[in-house]
Amino acid sequence: MINKSKISSRVALLFRKHTEFSALTGLIIIFIMFCFIATRFLTAESIAGILSVSSELGIVAAGVTFLMITGEFDLSVGSTFALSAMIFAITANAGFPLWAGFLLSLSVASFLGLINGFITTKFGIPSFITTLGTMMFWRGMILAITGGFGVRYWGTSSFLFVLNGIFFKGFRISSLWFFAVIFSLNLILTKTPYGNTTYATGGDEEAARVLGISVNRVKITNFIISATLAGLSGCIQFARFRSIDPTRGTGLELEAIAAVVVGGTLMSGGYGNLVGTLFGVLLMGMVRSGLIMAGAPAYWYQAFIGIILISAVIINVKLKRWAVK
Amino acid sequence: MKKDDFLVKMVGISKRFGTVQALKNVDFTVKHQEVIGLVGDNGAGKSTLIKILTGVYPPDKGEIYFEGKKECIDSPKKARDMGIETVYQHLALIDLMSISRNFFLGRELTRIIVGLFNFLDKKKIDEISERALENVGIKVRDVNEEVSVLSGGERQAVAIGRAIFFGVKLLVLDEPTAALSIKESQKVLDYVTGAKERGLSVIFITHNIYHVYSVADRFIILEHGVKIGDSEKSKVSSEKIIEVIRTGKELS
After folding, report:
1. Nearest CA to CA, how far is A265 from chain B (Å)?
2. How far apart are CA A105 and CA A100, in angstroms?
3. Model ipTM over 0.85
C-alpha cells in the first residue's frame, strides 16, 4: 500500500519535472498522421527540409525559452534576427572577411539584448513593453537604412558552409547548430548553479533577491543570450538564402513563443525546459512541411498552429493540475 | 583582543521611506547565544530594522557592528556570507523548484567536470539537504519534490531547517508562527531552543507575545520606529509587555 502510493507520487513527480511529455506525444501523433496523408513525407529530403526550417526557428526559440523561464519576454527577436543578417550581408558585400562580419553581427545582436535588459530592469517596466518598443524601433531602423530594398550576396565562401551548408542528402549544418544550442542551454539550465539562479529568478523574484541572487544581472544576461541567438539564427538563414530583405523575421517572435509554450514552458516563468522547446519546434516544422506535402494551401499552416497551440496549453495545464494533486 | 560581548550591535539606526519615518535613532543589540524577542504592533518598524541588518535596505543613518567589527551590510548575500540567516514571513522558497534545490539556492554545491565547468553536485545536494532536514526533525517524502506540494507547516520547517543549517551565527525569524497550527508553532519554538543550544543567537519577531515569551532571553519593544523597551525576561512579565505595546508608553 505504502509502496503503491510511493510509486504514484513518483510518476506524478516525473510528469511535473518533464514538461515535454505532451509535446512529444503531439509530435508522434502528427508524425504518424502525416505519414498516412502526405506522400513522400517519410523521405530523407522531407525530413531534411523539416529540420532546416525548424533549426532556424529553434535557435531563436531556445533563447526565448531561457528568457521566458527567467520570467521575461523578448518580442524583438524578429527584428534582431533581421538586423544581424543585414549587417552580415552588408559587411560581406563591402569586402570584409565573413567571419568578421559574423562576429560583428553577433556583437550587435548581444548589444540589442543588453539594451532590452537594461531598460527592463533599470526602469522596472514589463519586458513585453520594452521589447515591443525595440521590436518596432529596430524594424523601422532597418527599413530606413535599406530604403526597403533587400541585400544579396553574390560571393562564395566556405564560411557560409560552416553556418548552413548541406552536409548530407539535403541535411544542413543549421540542424547541428540547433542541437548544439539546445544541448548546451539545457545543460546550463538543469545542471549548473546559473540554471538554478535562472529558475529562481523566474519562479519568485523577491525570494531570489533575499537569498542573495542578483536578479537584475541574471535577467540582463538572459536578454543577451536570447538576442545573440536571434542574431545567430539570422546569419544562419542568410547563409541559406544568400539574401536578406528588410521584412525578414516578421512574426518570428510569436512563432517562437508558440513553440516554447507548446513545449510546456510556463509564460509566467520559473518552469520549463529546452527539450520541450525542441519538440515544440519540430512539431511546428513538421506541420508546415506536412500540410504542403499533403497538398493543402500554405495558409492552413497558421490556422493549424493556432489550434495546436491552444490544445497543447490546455493539455499541459490539465496534466500539471493532475500531477500536483 | 577581547571578544566583544555582543554578536550584533546596531547604533543610532534611522530609516525613512518617503514621508514615513520607519525607524528613528534605534539602538539594538544581540549577545552571543541569546534569543531576542523583537516585538511591537503593526508598522512599529520591526521588519525594517531586520531588513537593514540582513542587507535588504541600507540605513539612512547609524552603524552596524558584527562580532565587534564595523560592517557595511550592503546586500543579502553579504549578510548570508557573514553568517546571518533569515526566515522571512513569505519564507523565500521558490514554489516551482525542488526542496533540495531550494535548500542550496544561492550557495550551490558544485563539482568541476571536464576541468572547466562548475556543475551542480546533485547527489550531495540531495543527501545533505535530506540529512539536514532530518536533523531538525523534518521528514519529507522526497527532496526532489517541488516545494509547492508541501503544507504550510512543512514549508516553514524547510525554510527554518535551511536557515539553521547555514545560520552559523545568527538566525532571524520574521513572524515564523503567524500562519501555523498550535502543534506546528510548538515545533518552531523547539527549533529556536535547539538553535540556541547549538550556540546560535536568534532574533524572533512576532505579534504573539506568549509564543516568544517561552523562548526569549530578552525583549526589545518598538513603537512607531522608536525603541520603547529593552528588558531581560526576568524583569518583565508577558502581561507587562503586552501593556507596553498596547499603550505605547515606554517601559520603565
Report:
1. 12
2. 9
3. no
The answer to whether A196 contacts B93, with C-beta atoms less than 8 Å apart, is no
By C-alpha distance, the chain B residue nearest A6 is B141
Distance CA(A67)–CA(A260), nearest Å, equals 11
List, for residues A102-139, the tens digit of each pLDDT value: 999 999 999 999 999 999 999 999 999 999 999 999 99
pLDDT tens per residue across span A58-92: 999 999 999 999 999 999 999 999 999 999 999 99
Q: Which residues contact B132 (CB under 8 A, 6 or more apart)?
A: B103, B161, B162, B164, B165
Q: Cα–Cα distances in Å, from A154 out to A79, A106, A107, A239, B122?
A: 24, 22, 24, 11, 52
Residue B178 within any structural domain of the chain: yes
**Residue closest to B102 by CA, chosen among B94, B110, B112, B91:** B94
Same domain, B155 and B179: no
Could you tell me if residue B40 is inside a domain? yes
- Are A127 and A72 within 8 A, CB to CB? yes
Residues B175 and B192 in one domain: yes
- What residue in A sits closest to B52 (Cα-Cα)? A210
Query: Which residue ranges form the domains of chain A, and what is each CATH number?
Result: 18-324 (1.10.3470)
Residue count of chain B:
252
Looking at this protein, which amino acid is placed at residue A50? I
Q: What DSSP character marks residue B147?
A: G
The answer, as to whether pTM is greater than 0.95, is no
Q: Which of residues 176-215 of A touch B (CB under 8 A)?
A: 191-193, 195-197, 199-200, 203-204, 206-214
Q: In which domain, by residue range, is B113 found? A: 95-166
Q: Is residue B88 part of a domain?
A: no
